[in-house]
Amino acid sequence: MKKDIIKIKIENELDVVLSYKRSLQLAQFCGLPLASQTKFATAVSEICRNVLEHVGHGQIAFNIVEKDNSSCLEALVSDRGRGITNLEQLLDQNYQPLSNKGWGIYNSKKLVQLFIESTGEKGTQVKLHKAIPPNQPPISKAVIQGWIDYFTHDTSISPYAEIKHQNMQLLELLDQLRQKNLEVEEQLQEIKNLNIQLEASNQEIHLLLQERNKVNEKLTTINQELDKFAYTVSHDLKSPLFNIFSLASVLEEEVQANNLSDLATPVSMLKEQAQVMEKFISDVLEYSTAGRYNVAQSKVNLNALINKILLFLAVPTHFEVEVASDLPTLLTEEIYLQQVFSNLISNAIKYNDKPKGRIQISCHPEDGSLHFSVTDNGPGIPLHDQENIFKPYQTGSKHRNTSTGLGLSIVSKIIESKQKAFWVESNGTNGTIFHFTWPLEEVVN
């Protein structure tokens, strides 16, 4: 339903000013916010000026349109011109005028709801709508009649005063828009900062996931090693245990038969098997703890340490051991170096097959590390064994029955904990050199 209010003929600039003023007044009467009042009046002024510029005369009618329990203020601007030839282009959402024409409609579309009908025969009709707030009291015919009476007795219009008033309202609207733009910029900056934080958080999460995956892979490897370690230990312990049980049975039979004179041999064999088992258990414990715990560091004179190890190992008289006299003093874990040199020297003694054994121990700085060498004149290590001797329980083909296979694994773990290198040099038939490096920064000046 439509309720007519007033009509104004558009014939000169004064009529455009009057249309602007009536639009502003009606928008105020209808309870529109100040910004909406200015937008509606500005859009009406733009369309009326289009009529004046392109056709020369026309008409504007103000109405209240009610539909679906809502109402709006309508300004219907019409003319009898030749119509708009590029109407579809003008109404396109992405259209922007490239010349002086079309700016009135372009600007008005931003301010109000705009509906246009245009043909060459009937001219152009432009409807401008602005919704009336739902909390506004009903606008009856009596109210509209009161508006009409008010307009009838309104004083004459000063174009200068109206234009000045219009400009002031536009300036106020621009200030509001500028404030809105500042708020939008602050919000955009805040969103940008949040995006940066989110990206940083995502990067941290990605790094944590990578670290977790690495830890999981390491744990899987450790668990596999533990399974293999436990299986091998339990298997290798069975042999000396079985021998001890057998010897115990023999001792029991000899005691029952009162053959005490025959006990010496099984007792000696029993002690030997117990020593084998004790050595195996000790090696397992050393291997399991090698390089694992934080051990207190102390000053270690390497020449003194190696001499102590040689006394402990009771080097056979047919062996000659040459130790460089200028070995450095280190601030390091003494137990680690004791295990390293004890294993390497005892292996060199144990597996030497020469009538006169020889062991040489030397050290020199090289590539930012201390380079140690333990050389022997033993039978050497076959090339096909050299890759495996550092693994637990891999003794090499020549020594499978005389070693637990953990000595070099203990050394390897200790050197690895220092993030240094450990390797072997041998032609497989004559002599072996074990090399390892140690942190140069642990040297005491």
UniProtKB/TrEMBL annotation:
Keywords, sorted A to Z: Coiled coil, Kinase, Phosphoprotein, Transferase, Two-component regulatory system
Domain (Histidine kinase): residue spans on this chain: 232-442
Catalytic reactions on record: ATP + protein L-histidine = ADP + protein N-phospho-L-histidine
EC supergroup of this enzyme: transferase
SUPFAM superfamilies the UniProt entry points to: ATPase domain of HSP90 chaperone/DNA topoisomerase II/histidine kinase, Homodimeric domain of signal transducing histidine kinase
Highest taxon of source: Bacteria
Gene Ontology MF: a single term: phosphorelay sensor kinase activity
Residues in coiled coil: 160-225
EC number: 2.7.13.3
PANTHER family hit by this protein: HISTIDINE KINASE (PTHR43711:SF31), TWO-COMPONENT HISTIDINE KINASE (PTHR43711)
Protein name, UniProt field: histidine kinase
Lineage of origin: Bacteria, Pseudomonadati, Bacteroidota, Cytophagia, Cytophagales
